[in-house]
Amino acid sequence: MLSSDIVKNRILITGSNGMLGQRTVEFYTEKKTYELLCLSVEEKSVIDGVDYISCDLADKDKIKKAVYDFCPDSIINAAAYTNVDKSETERELAWKINVKGVEYLAETARVIDAHLVHISTDYIFDGKNGPYNETAKPNPIGYYGRTKLASENALKISGINYTVLRTNVLYGIAKNSRPDFVKWVVTMLREGKQIRIVTDQINNPTFIDDLVQAINKAIEFRKYGIFNIGGSEFLSRYDFTLRIADYFNLNKSLILPIKTSDLNQAARRPLNSGLLTIKAQSELEFKPHTIEETLFLMQKELGL
Ligand SMILES: NC(=O)c1ccc[n+]([C@@H]2O[C@H](COP(=O)([O-])OP(=O)(O)OC[C@H]3O[C@@H](n4cnc5c(N)ncnc54)[C@H](OP(=O)(O)O)[C@@H]3O)[C@@H](O)[C@H]2O)c1
Q1: Candidate from 14, 16, 40 with most ligand 1 atoms within 8 A of CB, to mutate
Q2: How many CB atoms lie within 10 A of CB 6?
């Protein structure tokens, strides 16, 4: 058999221009054993040389056409309305993208028997007694969290093969999007600017590449259901920032400790949160990098 005869698995990646989406695209492009279709709402792909469709997840007819034309084996949904504060006022839009969009993907996945991998969040919890395992009772305290929980529930009753990967505080290498938390901290401190960081939000920040590995294992092993994906350490955002400053030899006196309530944000945040990943460790071979390893990888690839 010629190498060109090898049947490649087809993967549709929605939200391919986003922070997680673009890194997922890069991962599968390098593997070369997959045929990819990228989909996001912007006119053009931020990554060159990939097959790309500009499509709104909330446009049922366009989504149906995109999915049926490509007929993927797996769909990775990395698209979402992710602005937590704006979700409080832009409720209709957030619901359309985060819930209706997922329902449309599930409807099409059912017809072609595709596996849908969907990304969710620890914001489905109230943050009173984290870290959480997969069976903990959700109780979202903001509208974004409500939409994400509704999307999980839509998948539960969809009858399709689905995997929900819940994650929290994504950071890492995404060259074509807004700076992630680490890059923002490094840039601000190098410019000698003070930053105010909360001491009362605790979770396990997740390196994007670790999440991409988990997505891939869920597809490879055909593991369905809900899995938590988070970093190797639970710490406050303030302590995370100190670790970043330590690693990059930056001036820690510029980091001012504050409380979440000082920020007067539109949406409440789960404070004592984070995600336990024992299930993913045993079923998805999930092995997150240490914080210092991730900072090294970012330094190397982004030249930070
Ligand atoms: N970032 C985190 O800390 C975090 C934590 C927990 C869970 N998550 C989840 O992880 C997933 C990926 O998040 P991310 O940080 O990569 O988000 P992101 O950078 O905001 O990427 C989301 C992508 O989806 C696109 N999109 C938005 N509305 C769309 C629509 N109607 N149709 C098609 N595409 C649309 C966005 O385009 P525009 O940029 O043009 O809107 C963007 O390219 C999301 O499900 C999010 O809820 C993220």
Answers
A1: 40
A2: 9
Distance CA 104, CA 205 (A): 30
Model confidence, pTM: 0.97
Q: What is the mean pLDDT of residues 164-184?
A: 94
* Percent of the chain with pLDDT strictly greater than 90: 94
Contact 149, 140 (CB under 8 A): yes
- Which residue ranges have their beta carbon within 6 Å of ligand 1? 15, 17-21, 40-42, 56-58, 78-82, 97, 119, 121, 148, 167-170, 177
Residue indicated by tokens 């997150």: 288
Question: Which domains occur in the chain, in start order?
Answer: 8-174+206-231+274-288 (3.40.50.720)
- Average pLDDT on 85-102 reads 98
Question: Ligand 1: which of 16, 20, 87 to mutate, most ligand atoms within 8 Å of CB?
Answer: 20
Tell me how far the alpha carbon of residue 81 lies from the centroid of ligand 1, in angstroms.
6
267 closest CA partner among 93, 144, 90: 144
Position 228 pLDDT exceeds 60: yes
pLDDT at 178: 85
CA-CA-CA-CA torsion sign (204, 214, 74, 42): positive
The residue annotated as part of the active site, out of 104, 123, 132, 144, is 144
| Catalytic site includes residue 52 | no
